[in-house]
Amino acid sequence: MTRFAKVIPILIACAVSVRAAAQATDEAPPDAADVAGELAAPSRGSASAAELTRRAIRLIHDRDWKRAEAVLNEAVALAPEESINLYNLACVRAQLGQSDAAVDALERAAAAGFTDFVLLRRDPDLAPVRGLARYKALVEKKDEWQRRSAERLMAKLRDRLGEGYAYDIDADHKLIYAASPEITTLAGLKDALQTQWRGQRRELFATGPDAYVTVVVPSAADYHRIMRYHNVGGAYFDATKTLVAQRSGGVMRHEFTHALHAADREPLGQEHAAWVVEGLGVLYESAEIESAEGGDVLVPLADNARLPAAAAAARRRGLVPLSTMLAMTPGEFMKRPNLTYAQAGSVMLYLRDRGLLRNFYEAYKRTYDADPTGGRALEQASGMDVPAFEAAWTKWLLDRPPAPFAGGAALFLGAQLAPAGGGMTVVLVAPNGPAAVAGLEPRDVILSVNGRPVKDYASLRPALGAYAPGKTVALRVRRGGKEFDADAKLQNISSAPTAAPQ
């Protein structure tokens, strides 16, 4: 689940833009302000400064530059290291004709951790200072400013999460890592994200992150302290370029897709429709690794774990009308997430299945100003109007062979399994089911359960023992050429696999 930018930076990262703040609506999903506790880095007087920031943004929106400057000066005095106030002060001073003072504020913002140089280069409020030598020198030192900010962020992560985590900075991919070893290894996390980065850059996103993205995989205890909303497996906060995920696998792929998508559209100043943002996130939840020139890449699987939910809705004529979904605000989209996520993801899968995904995405970026819903881009990519496209996509959903989760023992694990590879191969994983929570993914091979080898359903059933909901079983799993252990808490057999937001 992506989060949409609002006013106040709560996480330990950089500033949110004035424009992004002004575009936020009350009905948008909760954003970075819903992350509490362990990652918050309030400076002295920050509560009062936050209210002053809100006031200043309203004044900037009204182009009341003089009063905005007075309010921002007060906010900076209370919280001198809040880069959002320093950046906004630079914009205000530039509009007031105070060019040298504006660059002073920009330099202070960079020193305090401002790293969004894409915004800095395109923000119209800074147009009066772009010809200054000091401004050009600041921009030329972008990599140095960003590296300093990354080091400062990692130090703050260490302070708040402790030395039990693994930390690193990947300058090539603009990523900062903090990973709990009880959830994932740092090497495994880095390899997975770099593989996804290569795959999505090759297939879809032309532009990689310009500013550093912080990736946090907390311990189970820390996750519940960090995330106020516990019914989601993770979130990406674009306002602060921070990704928090409860586990690796599909959840991480979904949220990292948001991060790469945001980086690709940021130079264009576009806020893409909710169905596009979440549909792309769903698309990559079920994926596999393929060899390619330049290294392995991640590619989506045709049998996405959410697809059955969309197909079932199509069979009962319960899909949200496509024209309605295209126009949904983030808040409206989130009111029916089990359906809207699956439906948006299925549209993306259909486009990819027909070889139209890249054409659609490029057309959407071109036509965004004329039609931010994406309807015009669908028509350009497919050659059909929206009603005809809807009919073709729905027929594709209905014609696909069903992929039911196997009954009996496999249903207790929330997975579809098949004998292969010297064990039971995971074909599909139910979102938020026992197998998903344990970190299993399609193509994994379950070698043993509670120490007993399993090679077929006949051996799986006795290995699981009594089908007791709530019982935890120990799995030995092979992924690629490596083996690992995972614990899965069995679900009630009446629990149907459902699609839930990431």
Task: State the CATH topology of the largest domain.
Answer: Serine Threonine Protein Phosphatase 5, Tetratricopeptide repeat
- Number of DSSP strands? 14
Please give the CATH class of the largest domain. Answer: Mainly Alpha
Radius of gyration: 24 Å
Number of helices: 22
Number of domains: 3
- Please report the distance between the alpha carbons of the first and last residues: 5 Å
CATH architecture of the largest domain: Alpha Horseshoe
Question: Outline, from the CA principal axes?
Answer: globular
Question: What labels would you give this structure?
Answer:
disordered N terminus, 502 residues, alpha+beta, Pdz3 Domain, six-stranded antiparallel sheet, 14 strands, 46% helix, six-stranded mixed sheet, single chain, disordered C terminus, Serine Threonine Protein Phosphatase 5, Tetratricopeptide repeat, globular
Explain the layout of strands and helices:
Layout: E1 2-3, H1 18-23, H2 46-61, H3 65-78, H4 83-95, H5 99-112, H6 117-122, H7 133-140, H8 142-161, E2 166-170, E3 175-179, H9 186-203, E4 213-217, H10 220-226, E5 234-237, E6 242-245, H11 250-265, H12 274-283, E7 287-290, E8 297-300, H13 307-315, H14 322-326, H15 330-333, H16 337-353, H17 357-367, H18 375-382, H19 386-399, H20 409-413, E9 415-420, E10 423-429, H21 434-437, E11 445-449, E12 452-453, H22 457-464, E13 472-479, E14 482-489
Parallel strand pairs: 1-5, 3-4, 4-6
Antiparallel strand pairs: 2-3, 5-6, 7-8, 9-10, 10-11, 11-12, 11-13, 13-14
Helix pairs in contact: 2-3, 2-4, 3-4, 4-5, 9-11, 11-12, 12-16, 13-16, 17-18
